[in-house]
Amino acid sequence: MKVLLDAERLCRNFGGLKAVNNVTFQVVEGEIFGLIGPNGAGKTTLFNLMTGLTPVSSGTLSYQGERLTGLPPHRIAEKGIGRTFQNIRLFKGLSALDNIKVAQHVRTSSGLWGGFFCTPSSRAEEKRVDEKAWELLKLIGLADRAGELAENFSYGDQRRLEIGRALALDPRVLLLDEPAAGMNSAEKRALTEFIRAIREQFKLTVLLIEHHVPLVMNLCDRIAVLNFGELIAVGNPAEVQKDPAVIEAYLGAE
Amino acid sequence: MDDFLQNNGFLIVTLVQQSLLAMSLYYPLMAGQLSLASPGFYALGGYVAAIIGTAEYFAPWRDSLGWVVFPLEWLAAGIISAVLALLVGIPALRLRGIYLALATIAFVEILRVICLNLEITGGAIGIFGVPQLFDSRWNYIWTFGPLLILMLFFSYRLDRSRVGRAFKAIREDELAADAMGINPTRYKVLAFVIGAVLAGVVGAMSAPFLNTWNARQGTFDASIAYLAYVLIGGSRSMWGPLLGGTLLAALPEILRPLKDSRLIINGLVLVFASIYMPQGIAGALGNIRSFTVRKLGFGGGEK
User: Fold this and answer.
1) CB-based contact (8 Å) between A127 and chain B?
2) Tens digit of pLDDT for each residue in B45-84?
3) Which residues of B touch A176 (CB under 8 A)?
4) Which of A39, A203, B58, B167 has the most crowded Cβ, counting Cβ within 10 A?
């Protein structure tokens, strides 16, 4: 088993608040790694540290032995780490199709010149971008609404579109921030299957933040539990469920 | 027809010229950046052309090159504008929204005051007798017109290209664009430079057209006028700057019989257009078109 992501004593302070404190963990290639914890435990901050949106206060994060900490977000995305956002951040004024085309940016190279003169290489590239965007739209089931603006989609469709957009990066690691938020139980079951399917199809390693415990227990290979910025447990779902520290964090001490 | 062109040629060419300047604001806006620096680059380009056209130092060039000196003026203005835009843009584009607008206004003012005091720019008097490319004002349509068509074509292609999508992604959500692998600084600076080069080239074309060039060419008033063109015309469509530039630049002329009270009408048009057409004229026309396609089932080839 190959370690893909290696977080070493990650810290992030906001003033006096230690949002993420000394968090050390490793993610193995191909697994679905869940991140749970009460509200305000630092889960999203940890995702932001991993994708470079928030700079770390101290500690390092490496991806296949390469240091990610200190890189700007677009360089991290380029290395193959895609993400979605807790409070959906689609390009609202662009069509669903364009949202997915935008994210193919790092896998393409056409510049101003090529775009203006429609050179053969830029035309071929544009054709590939178009085909791949349609493929991904079909995968997430929104192909029949490709031309509609992202802001007109329902909440669940926007979440799917965001996953589609992240997949357009050709990622090896996919970070999903509360993908099931606001979904009903049937939709949650479908989402579980969908995440499993894309892991197989795209050979992904998935990290996900999720509040819905049955979904996490069912889907994840391993789970890390955060509480007040600290990592209190890591292990497979059964182990974590029995861990006294986890029970205390969620239910309080007896 | 000939009479009409002789009488109105200057106005028609001015409308095209103003539309081009409106377009120079459109590119930064496409990447979500409110830059009001265009008059600065316009003035700079004009000075480049005026100096090459009149300075003693360039006399041998002018004699040996003939009319070819004019395209070289445009090229020089474009290159100098691009370099200055890079130097100004890289630090200035760290600012967002209204702060960037203020910084670019400051840039325009600094450039104006410098030009007002330098000897080479003719100080407060400016540069007179810039050589003419054509003997009639109307003929300048043959420089501004092709540039307008070229820029419309450029906008059309840009809108559908990888670079244009990166611009629009940054406009929609800079942070998400960054997380999707787009380098925001790089593309914001690129959009700023494209606008600056266009304004610079338009300036270089305008100095022979206006025959004289001085520090009044690049002012804060002009910044606001160009912004109004884009906002009234519509900042989301490549046709917006063209519509806004043409209509607003023509308005004072159309209302000339009203004498001074025309400024009131001019102001009212601005106020009402921004209230009732927040997407500009191009946006409103787009809505009417999609409405007729959807509700009435005619017009439009899509869907």
Assistant:
1) no
2) 999 999 999 988 888 888 888 888 999 999 999 999 999 9
3) none
4) B167
Output the CA angle B172-B173-B177, nearest 5 degrees. 110
* Minimal C-alpha gap between A183 and chain B (Å): 23
Task: Tell me how far CA of residue A93 lies from CA of A151, B169, B236, in angstroms.
Answer: 7, 9, 10
Which CATH number applies to A1-80+171-254?
A: 3.40.50.300
Q: CA nearest B161 in A: which residue?
A: A115
Contact: B157, A89; criterion CB under 8 Å: no
Q: Which residues have C-beta within 8 Å of that of residue A225, sequence separation ≥ 6?
A: A36, A37, A231, A232, A233, A234, A240, A243, A245, A246, A249
What does the domain layout of chain A look like in residue ranges? 1-80+171-254, 96-169
pTM to 2 decimal places: 0.91
Residue ranges in chain A whose pLDDT is less than 70: 253-254
Q: End-to-end CA distance of chain B, in Å?
A: 43
Report in angstroms the alpha-carbon separations of A134 from A55, A131, A165, B48: 35, 5, 12, 49
Quote the pLDDT of residue B303. 36
Number of structural domains found in chain B: 1
At B300 the pLDDT is 43
Question: What local confidence, expressed as pLDDT, does residue B296 receive?
Answer: 63
- The conformation of residue B130, written as its DSSP 8-state character, comes to P
- Is B178 in contact with A53 (Cβ distance < 8 A)? yes
Cα B105 from chain centre: 15
Domain with residue B99: its CATH number is 1.10.3470
Dist CA B300 CA A28 (whole Å): 52
Structural domain including B220 reads 10-296
Flag if B157 and A115 touch (Cβ within 8 Å). Answer: yes
Listed as ranges, residues in chain B with pLDDT below 70 are 1, 294-303
Dihedral (CA of B128, B133, B138, B140) sign: negative
Phi/psi at A81 (5° precision): -115, 110
d(CA A108, CA B162) in angstroms, rounded, equals 8
- Kindly report the CA angle at A108 between A107 and A112, in degrees rounded to 5? 150
Long-range contacts of A244-253 (CB under 8 A, 24+ apart): A249/A37, A249/A38, A249/A225, A250/A38
Query: Which amino acid, one-letter code, is at B59?
Result: A
- Is residue B2, in this structure, part of any structural domain at all? no
